Structure formats: structure tokens, C-alpha cells
Amino acid sequence: MAEALILDSEAVNALARPSERRVLAERASAVLRIAHEKRALVRIPAPVLAEVCRGVKYDSAINQLLNNPGVRVSELSRASAQQAGHMLARARLSSSHAIDAFVVATALQFESAVIATGDPDDIRRLAAPFPSVGIFAL
Amino acid sequence: MSQPAAKLSVSVPSELAAAVRKRVGARGLSGFVARAMAHELEREGIGTLLKQLQEELGPPSKSEMARARRVWPKR
Predict the structure, then answer these.
(1) Does A111 contact B at CB distance below 8 Å?
(2) pLDDT tens digit string along B22-39?
(3) Per-residue pLDDT at B2 exceeds 80
(4) Residue A37 class from Cβ within 10 Å (0-12 exposed, 13-18 middle, 19+ buried)?
(5) Which residues of B touch A111 (CB under 8 A)?
(6) Best exposed site among A7, A21, A114, B70 by fewest CB in 10 Å?
(7) Which of B1, B43, B62 to mutate to probe the A interface, most A CBs <10 Å?
(8) How far is the C-alpha of A81 from the C-alpha of A102, rounded, in Å?
């Protein structure tokens, strides 16, 4: 099993629109470079797209990023979705954090993974029991 | 779910072929090669994205690179 870089919504937005989000994009490109050095896979959990896609008029930059063969969308399986629910319960978080939990569950599909996120506190809380998951705060 | 398979004939160094066969066996060879090909295409895609980002932003700072390296879990 491989290593992976998991992109949360802020990372996706920053990589899709670097000129509008220069500081975040610089940070995201740093962690992307390390992922490339490590031969890690780069994945966007499918539920993250619900946070970053806002209509045909606005999605062209996101679609361009998604069309890159190296940036692949990770579909949500039944097992991962159930694991996400269990994580929310363990961390005593409500369903409003479901997408964060899906992001962590996607990271757990790999031998080890780093999550690039603009929301490190909640992700850290959910990922706390899992030493195979690192957090990179944008 | 599974896509139609294409048969390929490729030449690779014999030592490499032997090492891969030893690792995955004759029956696992197609899957291994398919994963390696997919991974290489993905890496090229990320390389292209990194070039575009560097043209737009310049290289990331040393401090961000160091921070990005530190967060990776120990294997």
C-alpha cells in the first residue's frame, strides 16, 4: 500500500486558483513537492468536491485541477463512510463535521498519509487515534 | 466494473523482469505492471502541476518545505 497526500477543500481551492490564494498555494505546493519526492499518490476525497464546486460558471479552475492525471478523486466506500461515522462519535463531533471525517477516513485507506487542510483543529481531533495520518496546516 | 484489458508486448531488462516475477509471481504480473504504469502517469501529472505552480508563485520557501517534510508520518 502506498503513501498519499489527501487534499482538503482549502488545498484544492489553493491549487486550483494559486494567483488568488498565493500564501495558501505556496504552502500547498510545498507539501505537494514533498509528496512528489516520496512518490506519494495525490487524492481528493469525493465529498470535498461538495465544498469546492459552486456551479458550472465557477468550476472551471477546479475542473482543470481535476483533469490533471495526477490528482484523482477518491470515491467514498460503504466501509469508509461507516468508519467516518464512528470517528465522529468517538470525537464527540456532530454530523456538521461529516466531510472532515470523510477526509480522515480517506487518509486511512493508505499505509500512511498527510492531509493538507485549512481546518487543522477538527481534522487533528478526528485523526488523533491514527499515527499513520499526518496533518499539514495551510 | 473492470475495464477491457489491452495486451501489451514490452521489453525490459531481464534482471528487472526476474525481480518483479519473484515479487509478484507470473499471475500477478499484469496487475503490478498496470499499477506501475498508472502511478508513473500520475507522477508526470503532478510534475506538470508543480511546474505550473512554480511559474505562478516561484519556489516554495525553505521553511515551508521543511514544515511539509516534518508532517509526514514515520514509516
Answers:
(1) yes
(2) 999 888 889 999 999 999
(3) no
(4) exposed
(5) 75
(6) B70
(7) B43
(8) 7
